[in-house]
TrEMBL record:
It is a peripheral membrane protein. It comes from Glaciihabitans tibetensis. Pfam families: GPP34. It is found in: Golgi apparatus membrane. GO terms for cellular component: cytoplasm; endomembrane system. Keywords: Golgi apparatus, Lipid-binding, Membrane. This is Golgi phosphoprotein 3 GPP34. GO terms for molecular function: phosphatidylinositol-4-phosphate binding. The lineage of its organism: Bacteria, Bacillati, Actinomycetota, Actinomycetes, Micrococcales. Signal peptide: none annotated. Its main location: Golgi.
Length: 235
């Protein structure tokens, strides 16, 4: 990536469309909640940095569920990540299910506010009440274009992906939120995007059921599985 962005920041910036300055695709039909995908990206980032792990907890009446447990105590220096890390460390959240960890509806706003405070984007509020609109614009359009160009090099032009690219694909596919970051309508090769997305999402690493899977990979797989369940109609 052009800048050292977190997975969640990269997704938020890719979703910042220069055609309408909104974080969504017009006439979108995606079924996933983008905030859930961004929250999952924050969790995956903390796993990748060795700060949290997914662990199994037995209930008092039997049964098993997965939750998050702190495994590293050093702050990351990134406000949204450190805020999540503090919540994981809070004893009252010890038995919170992994799926519930992902079901936040304000993650997008938190990330955008942090990006704005750091001067990476600007936020403009227009109108009031039901007519209120919020426009998010890259502070440096050239840098934003470079981030999207790198993304499209991988997803449209088949450049060899990095691990962050594979994780990005897995998050978008599991969260069913690819339409937020897909190429603009009419982009050459747009039809290839979805097939490439699915291909890369299946390549990020062994599934947690594999006996050869590393602990961090199993944790990431469980997060992705929980992300899919969070978006299911049954909740």
């Amino acid at each position: 990536m052009t800048q050292a962005q977190t997975l969640a920041e990269r997704l938020a910036l890719l979703a910042c469309r220069t055609d309408n300055h909104k974080i969504r695709s017009p006439f979108s039909s995606q079924t996933g909640n983008f905030d859930y995908t961004l929250q999952a990206a924050l969790v995956v980032e903390l796993i990748e940095r060795g700060r949290v792990a997914v662990v199994s907890k037995r209930g008092p009446f039997g049964g098993e569920k997965f939750t998050l447990e702190q495994s590293g105590f050093e702050p990351t220096g990134n406000a949204p990540l450190d805020s999540l890390l503090a919540r994981v460390a809070d004893p009252k959240n010890t038995r919170k299910s992994l799926q519930n960890w992902l079901m936040y509806s304000s993650t997008r706003q938190t990330i955008i506010e942090d990006l704005a405070e750091r001067g990476i984007v600007t936020v403009h509020h227009e109108g009031s009440g039901l007519l209120a609109k919020t426009r998010v614009r890259p502070a440096d359009p050239a840098t934003h274009d470079a981030i999207r160009d790198e993304f499209e090099d991988v997803f449209l032009r088949d450049r060899e992906p990095s691990r962050p690219d594979l994780l990005t694909a897995a998050l978008l596919a599991s969260g069913e939120t690819w339409e937020y970051v897909e190429p603009l309508e009419g982009t050459p090769g747009m039809a290839h995007f979805f097939e490439r997305l699915i291909e890369l999402s299946n390549r990020y690493g062994p599934k947690w059921t594999s006996p050869d899977a590393q602990q961090d990979t199993r944790s990431v797989s469980r997060v992705l599985n929980a992300l899919g369940r969070a978006n299911a109609p049954s909740g």
